[in-house]
Predict the structure.
Amino acid sequence: MINYTLTRSARKTVAIYIKDGEVEVRAPHRVPMCWIDNFVLSKNNWIQKTLSKQQAIVERKITLTSDEIKHYKTLAKAHIPKRVALFAAQMGVAPTAVKITSAMKRWGSCSSRGSINFSWRLILADDAVIDYVVVHELAHLTEMNHSERFWAIVEAVLPDYRERKRKLNELQI
């Protein structure tokens, strides 16, 4: 059986969250323990796969030396602004600035002044994921929220954005 932390609340569904190698199950108060244990057991393959991916990412982060970080920052500064220019032209928008940062919690961000920032760590993702983050931030130049109109803009450029977003969510900063 997988070790997990159980958090009960007034929620309506049972969910499994994995972060930093820890498994947390969130469940409604009324769900019996035997049902929760069976649910976790039924998700064993997914849990193991997710834990393995996270461990590989952690090991990769640990092995990065400062020279490697400089290399990735250089790559990001060369590659990401080109993707921004390509999609900005396609979308008919123009950011006021494109910056590569050392952000640890966000892949990208867009300021109200139209400046777009990307973590250098994004360069470690594949191009489909990089393009999703670029289009996502560029869409904020038109819609500064995550409304239906925002997602329609993203989808018009990347019809498969949901799959790209799923791949991005598998990565951990």
User: Anything to note?
Assistant: The helical segments are 33-42, 44-63, 66-91, 127-139, 148-157, 161-170. The beta strands are 5-9, 15-19, 22-28, 97-101, 108-110, 115-119. Residues 66-91 form the longest helix (26 residues). The mean pLDDT is 92.
